[in-house]
Amino acid sequence: MRRLLPKIGGALLGTWLALSAAPALAQTKTGLSFESGFAPAQDLTVWPLDISQGYPLVRGQVGDVKGVFMLDTGTPWGLLLNRARVPLPDAHYELSGSAGSGEKLQVFKSARMPTVVVQGNAWRNVHDVHAADLAFFEKGTGIGPFLGFIGANFFADTALTLDYARRVAVIRKVQPQSGTPLAPLPPEFASDTQVATVQYRGDNPAFPVLDAMLGSTPVRVMLDSGNQGVTFDAAWLAQLRSSGAAQPFRQVDAATTYRAMPLTIAGMTVPMVDIVASVEPLKVAGQADPQLVKVGFGLLRQFGVTWNYRLQTMSFYTP
Predict the structure, then answer these.
(1) Is residue 208 reached through a cis peptide bond, with omega within 30 degrees of 0 on the bond before it?
(2) Predicted structure pTM score
(3) Percent of the chain at pLDDT above 70?
(4) Nearest of 13, 34, 14, 12 to residue 25 by alpha carbon
(5) Residues in CB range of 294: below 8 A, 6 or more apart
(6) What is the C-alpha separation between 263 and 318, in angstroms, rounded?
(7) Which end of the chain is less packed: N or C, by CB atoms within 10 Å?
(8) Secondary structure letter of residue 284 according to DSSP
(9) What is the CB-side half-sphere exposure of residue 308 using CA atoms within 13 A?
């Protein structure tokens, strides 16, 4: 059951953007409309994390419904609710897509919704929220009650620190022009050792693109906290297996994951284990080369990251 859904949030992104939306959809540079009224309210927000099966979870509530949200930087919306758990008034269809595991989804939007609470922080005036039936995630992982995803639009004007070793997410608002955080990191981060700082590309906050090397092969990397491990394009993974460059790593619920040569990002070495194949071809702006690698828990279990969305930088460190 644990490997039923090797990727959900980020894998949805490319599929959604490739499909037709409802005529009333407000156009943005990503082709999607977004919620309003759901953004960090304080200069510094610290959320305890529960890391379950590689997924970073926070406790929350929507109206009277209590449960958990996943922090999924690969989901474009700031909030994508689970219609199977959270009833929304006056919801209307907006677009269709499919999850990385193959489930077809219909995405709805509701102008009104109840108060949203995350780790004691409350938002009472959230509008134009999107939702889909995400019951398959709860069924496939056993994680629940599952309220939905907190995604990239929530973090768009912040510096986000994900520290899985300490089980914490630190969210700091930044100055709009300079990108400088409005609050310092908590003191416990002061002794951390920075190992790499990289600039990334991408107009879409949910799809950062880093240059890296897999052995001697140039690749592009997308960091996605909603990824349980590492994801390669299925055809490329088959080639690596055929040449002996990728080998079986472990068997989980009749599914095999793989290992390959390490990934190098700005001199930082990341072992590539627990690799799974993507259902959809992995591409950046329709380009198949260099290969795209999606990483999540496979990197974040080893390194913390401070991700400045305004400056488009990621600083990796060891606690």
Answers:
(1) no
(2) 0.90
(3) 89
(4) 34
(5) 7, 10, 11, 74, 221, 222, 224, 227, 230, 231, 278, 282
(6) 17
(7) N
(8) B
(9) 20
